Every structure is written in structure tokens, then in C-alpha cells.
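=== RUN LOG ===
request id: a7f3
mode: sequence -> structure
chains: 1
length: 79
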Amino acid sequence: MAQEILQSFGTQIGSVALMPDDSGGVFRITVDGTLVWDRKRDGGFPDVKTLKTLLRDQIGPEIDLGHLDRLPKNEAPDA
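=== RESULT ===
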């Protein structure tokens, strides 16, 4: 996930760090002190699309995530 984040956001994200915890089972994503995802609160681990969308919404809603922002044809709104 760290590689996906860095590849998608580059310098816009600042840094990505893995911080081991002795209590085990901790998985949290924060941006500038704001908790974006917590395994216990949010029920497990996010898929990459969900995580990238949450991060984008926090750091810059105008950032285009390319194919992740496109709806599948069967979900496209009626024109």
C-alpha cells in the first residue's frame, strides 16, 4: 500500500511511514494529524481504491486519480 500511495501522490503526500506497535493489530492512516483510516474503527483494511480516494479527498480533492475516478460502464450515469 505504501508503494501505491507514493506512486499515486508523490511529493503531495509528504511521507509514508511504517510505525511498529507492541500492542499488535494496529493499522492507522493519518494525514497531517487527521485520522483517515483505522482498522478497528473502520472494520479491517481498506482496498487500494478506497485508501487512495480517502487520501486524495484529504490532501487535494482536485487531484485526478485516473482510472480510479472513472465509473465502470454499468455504473455510468445516464446521459
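=== NOTES ===
The first strand starts at residue 28 and ends at 31.
The longest helix spans residues 48-59.
=== END ===
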